[in-house]
Amino acid sequence: MTFRPAPLRAAAVLAVVFIAARVIYRILFNGAGIGEPVLLDLPPVRLPAPYAHVVLLGPVTGPGLWAAVLSALPIAGIILGFGILNAWVDIARGFVHLARRGPMQGIARMLVVAWAALPALADAVSSVRLAFRLRGERFGARALIPVLERTLEHASRVAAALELRGFGSRAAHQPTQAIEAPVLIRDALFRIGDAQIRVAGFTPSSGSITVITGPTGSGKSTILRGIAGLLSHVDGGEISGTVLVAGADRASTPPRDTARLIGVVLQNPRAAFASTRVRDEISLALELRGMASGTAKARVLEVAESIGVSALLDRNVSTLSAGEATLVAIAAAVVDHPALLLIDEPLADLDTTARRHVISVLDALARDAGVCVIVAEHRAEPLVPVADSWWTIDDGALVHGAAPAAPSHPVDSGPTPAQPAELVPVLTATNLAVHRKGNPLVSSASLTLHRGEVVALVGPNGAGKSSLLVALALGEGTGGKRRGGEGTVDGGTVDGGRVALVPDASDDLFTRDTVAGELRAADRRQARAIRQAARKAARKAGRQAVRQWGRGHLDGHRPGSDRLSPMPAASRLARLRGDVSIPIGHEHPRDLSAGERRILAIALQTMDDPQILLIDEPTRGLDPAARAAVSGALRAAADAGTAVLIATHDLDFAEGLGARILLMRDGVAPAPSVEPSSVAAPSLVKEAAAANAATVQRIAAPRALKEVTDSPGAERQRHIRMPRGVELAVLAAANLLALATFCWPLLAAALPEDAAAALPYAALSIAPLAVVAIVVSLDGSVRSAHTVALLGVLAAVGSAIRVASTGVGGVEAVFILLILAGRAFGPRFGLLLGAATIAVSSALWSGIGPWTPFQIFACAWVGAGAGLLPRRVRGKAELWMLCGYGVVASYIFGLLTNLWFWPFAVGAGTGISYVPGAPLATNLSSFLLYSLVTSTAGWDTLRAITTIVGIAVVGRAILAAFRRVKPVSSMSGQAAKASSTQAKDRLQLRV
Questions:
Q1: DSSP letters of 590-658?
Q2: Predicted TM-score (pTM) above 0.85
Q3: Beta-bridge mates of residue 248
Q4: 3-state SS string for 888-936
Q5: How far is it, in rounded angstroms, from Cα 541 to Cα 545?
Q6: pLDDT tens by residue, 453-484
Q7: Residue 881, class by beta-carbon neighbours within 10 Å (0-12 exposed, 13-18 middle, 19+ buried)?
Q8: How far apart are CA 376 and CA 393, in angstroms?
Q9: 439-450 and 425-436 beta bridge pairing
Q10: What is the rounded distance in angstroms from the CA atom of residue 910 to the CA atom of residue 781?
């Protein structure tokens, strides 16, 4: 255990605040007038009925104040005790241990996911904030939508990762037999929505590497997800024909039941990590099937050494580079020695060294371990030396393909740009340094961009290329000068022109829920920019200048400029995409393929023909046709006078543009222009792949190919769910018992005085037991990987909101999330989300205390109540209903949380103190006055207003985002289509 002083300091401050509050209550409600001397003689004021027993103010004496302090010490001591506990005990690590064994594995795993999602949530907020700045929009309520979309996508990736690791599997644990054909597909059809891919025959052999190529959006990922089982059991698609994977019928066998035989690495592996430490992420599959701890640790060390990630085991997954994350994901996928490894786009965003290492690992898995490796990849040339067979998707069918030829000359070749000396400089950065949170990202960067040229910034992962682009776009950075040949760079503008950046996370630029909506918003921004420029011209040059400017703009030119003429967003998008159309109707932008989303983002950011265009990884996820379209668009922008700067690992693309190459390494400034051939070879040859073999140890053959029997301790612990009737009875009893613990001050009036005196301590002990009863009874319901992931990610969101708004005048924005999630996914989900939000937020700020069980129930009831509202109400009426519920829930929440704590907060001897044995009316009136003064009139009212405003502003969009989430189901695609609309609107908690 490690001592952390912060929780103890926070508890000490809270204890002091509690003592001060007790003293204030004594003074305010005539309870500090004991003995002599009188320190302050305040005139007493008696209240009218029904508060006639309450006297405000009165004399304040020294003994009275001391008595108030002494009376507060027991509760303050309890607070300090919990502070010491929080300082020594790492609650988050406790989640991990509970997730490994015991009766609460499902909910504990959800809490682990929530904790792991917190860094991803922080990254999402930062990335979306940057995207809004780049779009020239304020970071307001609309920003919640892309942040939420990112978190929901994160949840779906985590759900897929858990499903593929075996979470929730009820398959009997049996020794595995030798597998002759890891994959056997005959006359099959993979279908999702309107897209379908035909596979006449596909039977890759063990110990081979098979590469699948194809255009953007053609279905490469669909094929891999279909083989993995995600397509038909998670995504809502279907499979027909013969599809046998590791001997199991894929259509009837969910991926969780074949987890030991198949390893899967999906796109963007960092977004699918379900743990916080690398060690825990690699061992997750072993933990989920109950392998003994010692055996699991040894297996993790073995595979980490084989893959070459031993040095990363104790790292946080959020700190990994793209290459490191890919290797960790591969280690996690093969830790159980599968017979088949599916890996989607493993070389995307990797520099030459990282690509070489990943390819060496894949080659070792196939040659040494006998694994059947299937890779879907756009940048397939580096795989030529190690691949055994090539397949491609042509006209909706998977057919035999040919290995791509290494380009002997630059692809997409364009005209050679003029020499920098002949061009007009538009941006010069000298000795520019970029820091983030005190860490240097770029040091002493110096570069010059000229009008009409294309510059490519290349270098290894982590060199600072993306950070440099952001600094140039926003006019940030320190320790140097940034100037333009036509003006000074200030906040992203150069002489009236804009510095536009298409960032690495370009999906964050999307804030509307349809492609058509994005295009309309872009047209409105362009029209607004024209009007603002016209008003600026009027102020500078008078009406005549405005007329001249307007005529020039209508003609498609600015005075003295050769820039491209304005065009509608849809036309610009069509020009970028070339001959292949992108849906521009009611499709959600995030439902497009990776390449289509990238092109849409470029179109949105180039609407006003910026003077300087910066693009981070312009070819990510693009097929050759799309790369050619983007290349043509960038070349056209340069020909019209725009300075284009790209950061890329795709050297072939940069060469094809005729770009001037700048090299960055380790955060150092770009070097002078260098010949492309001196940067790195565009493709890997056999010797290059072998160069990294020293770092990849020999990988043992997969145990899935041999008959294996794990040790008895490795046998999966059977998880028994309560019968439905028993579960409902336990839930009802625990909630009633919890309600009684809230209301104990009022219930005590019916008990003898001796029994009533013990009731406070009974309430404090019963409330945690009620929480445990609820958790144990609901744990059996949390068997779906999708439910675990969605609960965990939304609990992280709620925790961040709660921690950010705690103490800010009653502004409890977390109620907005709980009410909308409970409404979208049902009462059981709302109950769990409310409880998990309190658990995670309390662990986040080390706020575990005697109040925690009461907060858990109060927030859980808020979420569950929203799920019990009438289901048929839709549209504006639904939002009005939720606003009304938010008001009622805010006040009831305040009353309940005040009620149980009121006797402890005030103590004895004041006009509003709880009096054991007093009539119910007397105690009730005292409580209502206490609540009115301390909470109802202020905190609860502000909480209600916050909830109303939040639901009114973002309620529709958030509900739509929630209802886009596909529930995990064991149904086949055909059965899923027959499910009711109501079932689609709710998350199914049973799998």
A1: GGS-HHHHHHHHHHHHTTT--SEEEEESTTTT--HHHHHHHHHHHHHHHHTT-EEEEE-S-HHHHHHTT
A2: no
A3: 245
A4: HHHHHHHHHHHHHHHHHHHCCCCCCCCCCCCCHHHHHHHHHHHHHHHHH
A5: 5
A6: 899 998 877 778 888 888 888 877 655 444 44
A7: middle
A8: 11
A9: antiparallel
A10: 47
